[in-house]
Amino acid sequence: MGDCNLMLSVLRRSRKVWAGLTLAALVTSMAGAVALPAAAAPGATPTITYPLGGEVFHGVPTIGGTGEPGSTASITDGNGSSICSVPVGEYGYFSCTGTQLLPAGTSNLTVTTTTLDGTPTVGTTVQVQAKYSIALGNPVAGSLISSTQAFSGTALPGVQVQMVTVAGIPMCTTVSDEWGNYQCIPTVPFSVGPLTLAPSMTVVEGSVVVGDPVAWTVIADPMITSPANGGVVGDLPVFTGTAHPESDIAIVHGRSGAVLCSAKVGTSGNFNCPVTRRLPVGGLEVFPATVTDGGRWVMGAMATFAVEVTPMIVRPANGSIVPAIPTIEGTAGAYSSVAVLDGNGKTLCTVKADENGAFSCVPTEALTSGSHSLLPVQTGFVGDVVRGAAIHVTVPGTAVEETGPTTPAVTTAAVSVVKEANAISDIGATHQLAATGASGLLLPLAVGGGLLLLGSAALVPMFRRRTRS
Fold this sequence. Notes:
The chain crosses the membrane at residues 441-463. This protein folds into 5 domains: 2-130, Immunoglobulins (Immunoglobulin-like); 135-218, Immunoglobulin-like; 233-307, Immunoglobulin-like (Sandwich); 312-395, Immunoglobulin-like (Sandwich); 412-468, no CATH class. By secondary structure, it is mainly β.
């Protein structure tokens, strides 16, 4: 009795294969196993037991029923097109899955069995519904779009998808992937202004499902008008151009996608966008993008520039007196490598400029006394080398006290005068001697065991007078 209750439960739950059977059709063997009798006798009319009439399909259908064991059951729609076929099992049951979708709308499914000798028997017919949907995900309704906007959404897997006008004219065509996703890109740019399109898919030949129409506004692509494409710019360029009036505009790095600057477009459609963070020297690719609702972009054409910066030493100043180990400061391209060379091409120090292009370095060896030239040389990311302007500095010498000859002896007073002369020179002897017409160079002259301090301008007349005598 327990086996009968179990089979009764199975029968109540199943509609696909066991529909129409009764408990009286079951036979219990002596061992307790349940055997299935034939569902249809030879020559019996085949019957569709699943789906029931009025069933709605949203995908490929599966049909089941009964027929003469050993025959082949074939399912056709109202147009005579084959849906599927399968051999009937030894107990007279069959189940098959369609090889394609049913046409959208109402379909009449009919089963026909064919015996091994080719005798057909037409069976029952059920009427079913096929309903499919196609959805557009992007762009959202009411947004601003470009003239070459791509459309994406979901449909049935592996079907032809189009974006069509109200008049049914296709603007683009594609095929959905195995998961039903699609992206449709128009081959001809749209005209600027209002645009209404609807997604459509071809389920089977002659059966097309059209989704809800969606409206947008097509705007002109933004454009950079200055600097000129292919030109040279500094590391803080200002981009100007045209875009949709009163929209938000961004200048975007072509490789990283980073926004270099953003601005508000004026009512006339013009924009001015200054870059506030220094750009590295080298090649630069950017494109303008109008920012629409939801943060989407309407992108303009890519433009290419060359960022060039000339390195410069700003401290010490040109012509100044510096210590033997000076600190050299200046500007260069952001993050570039900078080397400072002397007049012989020897590298005095190297450093990497910071994000603002500033650099500071100290020579690894002390400079000798005398005049030196300091030349900044910059190397960019791609190895491009730019030489700046050299400056000239002077390292003062160290005063050395000379012993002098033994005869005549240098008196203590004379040594004192030399030291005083050096002191005067250090604090600006040029100003003290200006009234005498001397150039500022103090020359000690020994006369009768003493020292006289003479400006260089006074020295020549003295020698001339002695020559005449």
